[in-house]
Specification:
Elements lengths: L15 H19 L17 H5 L12 H14 L23 H4 L27 H12 L2 H4 L2 H37 L5 H9 L2 H29 L12 H20 L2 H30 L49 H20 L4 H4 L7 H28 L28 H6 L21 H8 L3 H35 L17 H9 L10 H13 L3 H21 L21 H16 L12 H25 L15 H7 L12 H9 L4
């Protein structure tokens, strides 16, 4: 007599993965035995739906929606008869009982052109091609690194220093880094478990609301599409640092450099994604080396190298200030004053703890833009060879990137310059403390020794020439004039490299929106190399806005337009955390799937769900306080208001309109979809016997040895 817990096929006591394996095998055996004896197959019930892979993981642009049930069974039957995935030895790639012989699991799902490889050599038609999973772990790591490390850290961080001081800026980088880290590890866990190609928008639609995903997706696309043009403009304007080029005097030179930079970015994004990954790897590695060199130079400068004085913590020591001339040092600026020139009377601003807190809030909103794009690692996961292995590895390095390349960089540079230096960009005005023509006669600049180098580069329509970077200012103060010119050249390279990543993310975001039906269908068409060329072309068309920089007036208009959607990345962080929180509690209501404590759970992020709540609340605070200064007395500015809250307004409009038209609803936790994507990943990628949360000593040592590569 069968026991209470037994079942006909012995499935009841199996875990989720092995139950899925057994069910699929039974499904194929039933079709083999009975399909030839029936005039119709409609009476055969699927144990595993034959169209799970195609419908739930990849949308086959035109064909799948029109495929009949019998056609789907025929197509899947052809695949399973020639190559059965459950007969493959995943460890050594040997042939099992079936006829197939595959060297590695990537041949099944991670092939060059389609989610399922068949024995046929016939090329897929144009509408049947997909993104190619060819990115390695190191490519993911460097794409994320290269897409974020740019003008935000090396140029705009000066605004935070002038408003909050050296320690205040470091504190802002730490706080914002905690928010970003909490967000990324949360979203990574979701993507690793239900790896799908529709990215932030798709997971927001699945776990929150379809209207929510629509608004997030389009804002995310616009943010990076305009960001591409912004990086091109910034690259050209930073060339004005070199007066011999006479950039602004010759409009043809401006247009020529825009064409050169934009074409290089478009070509890089139009080639095989594997080559793109290597291009990003090399460019990001150059960035990494440069940052490390700059950190070392700043340390040497601080200790009196290059013939200068030993600074130590001079600029953080209030007692060493020149009080008679209002050159005040300290952990924070002496008061919260949006119009501070570096020599302003502290009584003109808000002092004390309240002033420090207000300065810190502004600094957090400024440095948050330096972190924007850290989530690129999750976007690129849709083209990773093995996302369940590659994504957690790349995500874990986000912590070290934040500590070393953001916090440490902000710390060492703030030790080497006066926070009120008039050469730095100001937060409220967007210009320097005094006109560049007055640099040589300004007492504050003379006091800190900043008259060694001839720096006459001015601000152009709100864009910096690079001379206003805190790193360049520190180098010029130490009389390293030639090296400061070299450093500015690297900043130009940084901007172009960031533009490369901007185009990649914007095109993949448009591709994912198309897969979901939230954008025209043709945007999901890929060529034989797995490049969504329509999406790339559409996203690249926004780069043509960079030609506006030939006119200063047009550049001002473009700058204002870009600022309106610039904070989209912060809203995306909020969406990521909200999606994970619902994912976390929804998974608790589905114990039949898997527990987060199960050894075979792909990636378990730490301190959950509290990490996600930290990211959610932190990003919400940044969004709401980003432009609070416009509400202060005498500081109202309509353009500044829309630059700060325009993204929030656009998001609300997109959400409400989509919800009104399609009548979408927020799903209950019990009805959340945890199967689409996950089951296909389990079937084609996941080694069910592997403990994903443990690492051997060899793997740990290899990870540390390859940290820089």
């Amino acid at each position: 007599m069968s026991s209470k817990n037994s079942s006909v096929f012995g499935l009841r006591n199996l875990d989720d993965f092995n139950r899925y394996v057994k069910s699929t095998e039974l499904n194929d055996l039933i079709y083999e035995k009975y399909s030839g004896n029936l005039s119709t197959q409609d009476n055969l019930l699927d144990i595993i739906k034959s169209k799970d892979l195609e419908q739930n993981f990849y949308i086959d642009n035109n064909d799948i929606a029109l495929t009949t049930n019998n056609d789907a069974r025929s197509r899947i039957g052809t695949i399973t008869n020639s190559r059965r995935w459950y007969n493959i030895d995943w460890k050594v790639g040997q042939k099992g009982n079936g006829e197939g012989n595959i060297a590695k699991s990537s041949d099944l799902y991670l092939g060059d052109e389609s989610p399922v490889s068949t024995s046929s050599e016939e090329a897929l038609p144009r509408t049947n091609r997909y993104l190619s999973r060819k990115l390695k772990v190191r490519n993911l790591q460097m794409i994320s690194f290269g897409g974020t490390l740019g003008v935000g850290l090396f140029l705009n961080s000066g605004k935070a220093i002038t408003i909050a001081g050296g320690f205040g800026t470091l504190l802002a980088f730490i706080i914002c880094g905690i928010i970003v880290l909490s967000t990324i590890i949360s979203f990574c866990e979701m993507v690793t478990f239900v790896s799908i190609v529709d990215g932030v928008s798709g997971l927001s639609s699945r776990f929150v609301d379809d209207a929510f995903g629509f608004a997030v997706g389009w804002l995310y696309f616009l943010s990076f599409a305009f960001g591409l043009a912004g990086e091109m403009v910034a690259s050209v304007i930073m060339l004005t640092y070199y007066p011999e080029l006479k950039i602004l005097e010759n409009k043809g030179s401006v247009a020529g450099f825009v064409v050169f930079f934009l074409l290089s970015v478009i070509i890089s994004n139009s080639i095989n994604v594997q080559i793109f990954g290597e291009v990003e790897y090399i460019s990001s590695f150059i960035k990494l080396i440069f940052v490390l060199v700059m950190i070392v130079i700043m340390i040497v400068m601080n200790r009196g190298g290059f013939g200068g004085e030993v600074l130590g913590f001079k600029y953080w020591d209030h007692s060493r200030s020149d009080f008679d001339n209002n050159i005040i040092f300290g952990l924070f600026r002496p008061s919260f004053n949006l119009q501070d020139t570096g020599m302003s009377d502290p009584s003109e601003g808000i002092g004390g703890s309240l002033g420090n807190f207000m300065s810190l809030m502004v600094a957090i909103s400024v440095v948050s833009f330096a972190y924007s794009g850290t989530e690129i690692v999750c976007i690129a996961a849709c083209e990773a060879k093995d996302p369940r292995k590659a994504l957690p590895s790349a995500t874990k390095r986000v912590f070290w990137r934040i500590v070393i390349f953001y916090c440490l960089s902000a710390f060492v540079v703030s030790l080497n310059l006066y926070a009120g230096d008039p050469r730095l960009l100001r937060y409220f005005t967007g210009s320097t403390g005094v006109a560049s023509a007055d640099f040589n006669t300004n007492y504050a600049i003379q006091y800190v020794g900043g008259t060694h180098c001839d720096s006459k580069s001015a601000i152009y329509a709100g864009y910096s020439s690079g001379a206003q970077s805190p790193w360049i200012v520190a180098l010029q103060t130490a009389n390293l004039c030639q090296f400061s010119s070299v450093a500015n050249g690297f900043l130009v390279f940084f901007a172009v490299s960031c533009g490369n990543a901007q185009l990649y993310v914007s095109s993949r975001t448009m591709y994912s929106l198309s897969l979901q039906g939230k954008a025209p269908k043709f945007f999901s068409i890929c060529n034989r190399h797995g490049i969504p060329y329509y999406s790339v072309a559409f996203a690249a068309s926004f780069g043509l806005l960079a030609f506006l920089c030939v006119s200063e007036e047009a550049t001002v208009v473009f700058s204002n337009l870009s600022n309106i959607i610039a904070s989209s990345g912060i809203i995306v962080w909020f969406a990521m955390c909200l999606s994970f929180i619902r994912f976390y509690y929804g998974l608790k209501k589905r114990p039949d799937i898997i527990s987060r404590d199960d050894p075979s759970y792909p990636y378990k992020s730490f301190f959950q769900p509290y990490s996600a709540f930290i990211g959610l609340i932190g990003s919400a605070i940044i969004i709401l306080t980003m432009g609070y200064t416009v509400f202060l007395n005498k500081y109202w500015d309509t353009m500044s208001f829309f630059a700060s809250y325009g993204t929030l307004i656009i998001f609300a409009v997109c959400y409400i309109v989509y919800k009104f038209i399609y009548g979408t609803r927020i799903r209950s936790l019990e009805t959340l979809d945890f199967d689409s994507g996950r089951r296909e990943m389990d079937r084609f990628i996941w080694d069910g016997n592997k403990d994903y949360n443990k690492r051997s000593l060899k793997e740990v040592l290899h990870k540390w040895v390859s940290f820089l590569a």
